[in-house]
Amino acid sequence: MPVSLAKLFIGRPVANREAEDLKLGVISGLPAMGLDGLGSASYGPEAALTILAATGAAGLGAIEPITWVILILLVILFLSYWQTIAAYPNNGGSYIVAKQNLGTNAGLLAAAALMVDYLLNVAVGISAGVGALTSAIPALHPLTLWLCLGILIVITVTNLRGTRESGLAWAVPTYLFVASLGFVLAWGSYKIMSSGGQPQPVVAPPELPKAAAGLTLWLLLRAFASGCTAMTGVEAVSNGVGAFREPRVRHAHGTLAAIVGILGLLLFGIAHVAQAYGVMAMDQTQTGYQSVLSQLVGAVYGRGWFYYVTIGSVLAVLCLSANTSFVGFPRLCHLVAEDGFLPRPFAVPGRRLVYSVGILFLATGAGGLLIIFGGITDRLIPLFAVGAFLSFTLSQAGMAAHWRRALRDGPASSLTGRHTDRAKLAINGLGALATGIALAVILAAKFVEGAWLTVIVIPCAIVLLRAIRRYYDDVDRHVLRGSHRRIDLATHGSPVVIVPIKRWDRLARKAVEYAVRLSPDVTALHVMSVGGPDAEDRQDALRREWRALVEQPAIRAGVAPPRLQFVTSEFRSVVAPLLRAVEEVQRRYPGGQVMVVLPELVEGRWWGYVMHTNRERRLRARLLRYGGPRLAVTSVPWQLREADPAEGIAEEEPPAAPEGTPA
Amino acid sequence: MPVSLAKLFIGRPVANREAEDLKLGVISGLPAMGLDGLGSASYGPEAALTILAATGAAGLGAIEPITWVILILLVILFLSYWQTIAAYPNNGGSYIVAKQNLGTNAGLLAAAALMVDYLLNVAVGISAGVGALTSAIPALHPLTLWLCLGILIVITVTNLRGTRESGLAWAVPTYLFVASLGFVLAWGSYKIMSSGGQPQPVVAPPELPKAAAGLTLWLLLRAFASGCTAMTGVEAVSNGVGAFREPRVRHAHGTLAAIVGILGLLLFGIAHVAQAYGVMAMDQTQTGYQSVLSQLVGAVYGRGWFYYVTIGSVLAVLCLSANTSFVGFPRLCHLVAEDGFLPRPFAVPGRRLVYSVGILFLATGAGGLLIIFGGITDRLIPLFAVGAFLSFTLSQAGMAAHWRRALRDGPASSLTGRHTDRAKLAINGLGALATGIALAVILAAKFVEGAWLTVIVIPCAIVLLRAIRRYYDDVDRHVLRGSHRRIDLATHGSPVVIVPIKRWDRLARKAVEYAVRLSPDVTALHVMSVGGPDAEDRQDALRREWRALVEQPAIRAGVAPPRLQFVTSEFRSVVAPLLRAVEEVQRRYPGGQVMVVLPELVEGRWWGYVMHTNRERRLRARLLRYGGPRLAVTSVPWQLREADPAEGIAEEEPPAAPEGTPA
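Above: the input entities. Below: the structure tokens describing the complete assembly.
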């Protein structure tokens, strides 16, 4: 077996029938679908506190009320998405929901918003994770960007290998995160109670900054807008119901409930403990930066080994929260591509049943964002919130439209059914209203800080998506037009064959033999790129060989002898002389077919591409592009390594490995 | 015309006959071939001073004697290379000289040493240039690595465009560098004289560091070894004689003399002025770093506008000294590749008459070195000196062997000729001896600091070069074996044809029409990747279309009707079912030929690769690799954009643009 880099990094191909085994339950679904949602607990409250920092102690007092508003919004979202999952058991992402209920334009708007959202989720998750890491080990602070990019690469490769591995490998840190952070928050709350609201920190957080600004309503709105990023990721489950085991809906509902419940407790706990202990957000660009969670764990429990375990799990979960996007983004792109709004490669499942193109696209985009914003979380937050809430709103509005239609079109008889539908309409309508208001607040509060960028990017993306669809429609129309005519058997006749040869060797002989088999009119073309006395000698030698080895045997066998022709090329290109020869033949035989037979050395091993100039590949592409409609190109291979079809089949379709075998 | 990114960045293709116009004279050759040599003046003395810094004032006193030794070595090198140029007017690089006179192994050793040398010259030149820049603008110090990589990219693109542009565009900074630095050194020398050796600095350099170590012989040897990097680049001219205008040798000699003369004056001036003004090297990793030249210009003339002009030209020349490697490295790779020791793509001139693969390889390698060593000059110096002096020594030894053979084999009559040859032998022998001793000193003095890396890399490179040559020899033997048999016309007969079709459209129709033209035995293969009721409907529809549009017309025309066959594929791959069909045919007709006819949509515009899955391309590669020796693959194109051969020819061979037209 040749060395296969793809197999080494990506693993063996996966058959369709194995697909079921890779699917998720609640226990494995919580990490795969919920890391984003749970991870938000680390940067959401911190983002709100960053805005409040300017107002000092007064600002810190505002974090609990703001969190209550966020929690109410979270419950509304939870109910809405619960209904979405039940109504769309085949991946009811906001793209599908908006498209089916509000029309294509709304669907594309939702898709564009979601894509931006997924992209930013990766960047924010990783940068916040690295923020936790540099809090624990300040010496790493100057390496922030490099750490971000390294983590991104690891996640990308893991995802190219397939969904199940992601689910299981991420489970340990997720549950460790929930357990350790939950313990810290519970212990902190207990100490707050037992000390009558005045707990003594083990490691005191930095002093609160002086109030540089007053606590205005505008500032509260901005803090709320930033804090809303704590909710991002809740939609992931509804977007990937298809990744769950049967019964899908039950598993998806269970996973959603677990995510929202845990997230709500964490958000409340963080706000409560941070306020009592006087923990405020710091500036990530400055050395000495400590994330809110790092300060919090230190204040509640000190900086012993438990601190490092907790921060380690925060790091892991935050970085891996990016993983949710790696499940959702390629799946969304696949749906959009199947509708023809994205290039087809996005719709093709790769060797491991994952959509590799989508994964690579996401990784590239997120890497770009991390580089541009230097891996600083706070700079990415404004862009992030807009995309997330735009898609929330569209999804909820779509569901509301769905129930309204169900009410209008449904059977009038079932009164209880109609009551249920009305209740559902109310819930999703409330969801749409609440997220819509939140979106308006975010847009207004964050416009100058970067939301404007999202406002520009999303319409551009929609225009691009529409242009792609138009392209495919054009191609389809072109290719199908008049295809229902019968095949034409009148212009039956052999093509005129041209064989470019470099010298007389076994490749050339095989190609000429093949050409003679197909047509009585064969011309071999030898292109000389430079003149000189040496070139003439070689020309003479080739002419002699041709006469003895090709012409005479053909004449003796009563076959029309193939001709040998020499041409010079000034530009070191073989393409132009060949195209000229093709043009010449087409002029001589109007309506006749031309075939170029290319002798091709096939290396087979991976270094073949490096060792050979691959002139044939380029030649073939140029001929197909410029040779006109009456030209066909035949490759006659000469394999350096013997290989037969069975070997190729085995490589494409390996026998299924038994369960538990490391892939 | 479609948008061509290659044309935009690289420029239009260049014809062979234009090659002469791109060649160099002395005035244009000095920057193109000499930037490396001249640029060495900035880092060579500084590298020596870096070693001496530990000994304080005593060390500074040693710089002038060390420079004298270096100058003597430089004169020996000059005389040696003068002779090499005359004896090898077709690119007498040390590879050619060593190979022809000392055998293949010595040649490969020289080639490997030179490649390492070229690579390091790029890295050192750029990092030293950025060192000059951050001396002048200390705020840029944290960006050192990014600046290095940015400059590397600019140089790479410039070189992909062709030699002449490099020669002319680099001329202004080179001559500015020589003039301004020459003026500073002359002015400094005048002030030293007029002040009786005690000049008053305009801007005082930092105080001399305290002597932390004594001035031992070992330290002097290490300083000399580092200082030897000031000589690197002198070989560039002899390595690229072919790039000069006729009469080549005279132009090359003139260029070499100009380079060595100017370099010698600069080295002497720097040592003299630095010693008198008390200028010592600083640590580039520390903020506040000032290069030796920056301190020197400041001390002699102050930091007015002239300081910035001088440092600007130093920056330009140092960065662009890397350019010498971009002329020499691809040329060397081309020579080595023509001998079969490097992959063939290195030997192919690109669109603009430059060896693009070599340029890209060099850029990648230098980028890697800069990233690994963080763009710090001093860390690269030990690796640099070894490669350079190894190739110096081999080149001189090769020339000595050349003259010895000339003495032995030459006509006994011409006594004066023999005397001249003896003198030449003496000069090159002296050169070999001197550079060999210097090499031994460098290896001993720099082994721990990094020279060991070069000592490992060079033998590995030689093993690789030999393996590549063995591979080509094997391929050649394989392909030529038995090629002198006559062509076989006995197994004359049509191939069995298989046409994979996705659906019935114009592509499929054209492919089937073509197949019927070539063979009476045609089977169309439809691969269904997933089952389901929808798939069955499509299958039925296709069967009906086939009967009406293909079978019945064929029967009516008296042609054997093509068959339609359905297969399912579990792994979403079309390759395996096709290979299975090929295997089946080969079992049924032992010795018969099989042809797969692929309908192929040709987009032609640059986004085609993005918009289509390019399944055909992969399919074709797999078939050629695994289909066995009796399979051929024919591509029947369907062009989305009408294009004819003339258009393709025009793109490959544009009419020559008049002189002075921007390319």
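Note for the figure: The two ends of chain B are 16 Å apart (CA to CA).
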